[in-house]
Amino acid sequence: MNKKLLQTFCLAAALTATNASAAVIDVLWYGGNAFYNTLPGTLASNAGDYDPNNDGSLDWNVDIWELGEAAPDFGSYDVFIIPSWLSGMDPSRLLSAGDDITNARGSRTFLSGQDADFHYLNSPGPIDNGPRGFFINAVNWAASGTGMGIVALADGWQGTGSTWMNNVNSFLYDELNGHLNYFQEENVNIVAGQENFPVNEGLTSAGLSNWGTSSHMGFSVSTPGYEVINTAGGNQSYAVTLVTEGQADGGTDGGVVTVPEPASIAMFSLGLLGLGWARKKRNQA
């Protein structure tokens, strides 16, 4: 065999013999009413199947923090989901745990006026380019930073206003006070240039719109510490969804490190032996 060809083959085998380990994230979900509490298990059972770009997905282990239960150990979770007000949630225990949430809170926060959880359970349903994809991307993105990520959906609508975000005891109060507005919006537009960000994987503006009221609230586009990823078509001064500033293009891989599998290590060793054999033969030539 040609020496250079052998070297190329062995090096290619060594470099391509690694696979990413399957990743599992630990999800804490703030519970709502009995009907809503069917959603966490349903979505977790198939979240790992969502991978429009064929670049990897995450499996979920989910715990529901239900009414009447003691506050959990927030630091043991990768992400904390706070549902939309349509879940029937009672925000009292959320507000009481503000300091503990703040202490465990990590590098990524996802805030949206879209109530993708409600629309997953209702209309238009579990559509990938719609409520399902939007929700899974949000959770995977928030879980892929350091510490406990946050995903918080619309906490009210026009006529009701905030149920917890703008409460003085909210862990988000200082960040959001004066930056919230409540309205009904059907057109949600992904910010130009962000279409290929992992947090928007498989999504289009059309897919985020026309859900039968796609958004119920928005955030000032100048909210400090946050970056806009989609906007309200009829309220351009408000973002529908914000993420932590500087993290909008961050990955959704759960922070997984690519490691060699046992068979890959064997292939790598074979590659090294092949390179050594080629060098020996060259020296003898």
What is the N-to-C order of secondary-structure elements (H for helix, E for strand)?
HEEHEEHHEHHEHEEHEEEEH
Mean pLDDT: 86
State the major sheet. Answer: 10 strands, mixed
Shape: globular
As residue ranges, the low-confidence spans are 1-21, 257-285
N→C terminal distance: 14 Å
Treating each run of at least 4 consecutive H or I residues as one helix, how many helices?
A: 9
Helix/strand class? alpha/beta
Q: How many E strands?
A: 12
Level of helix content? 25-40%
Q: Strand fraction band? A: 15-25%
C-alpha Rg (nearest Å): 23 Å
Protein architecture, described:
- With 285 residues, this protein is an alpha/beta fold.
- The protein is built from nine helices and twelve strands.
- The protein has helices at residues 3-15, 39-46, 92-96, 98-104, 116-121, 131-143, 173-176, 205-208, 262-284; strands spanning 19-20, 23-30, 58-65, 79-82, 105-112, 148-152, 180-185, 188-190, 215-220, 226-232, 235-244, 258-259.
- The strands form two sheets. Strands 2, 3, 4, 5, 6, 7, 8, 9, 10 and 11 form a ten-stranded mixed β-sheet that branches. It has a two-stranded antiparallel sheet with strand order 1-12.
- Helix 1 (3-15) packs antiparallel against helix 9 (262-284).
- It is globular and about 40 Å long.
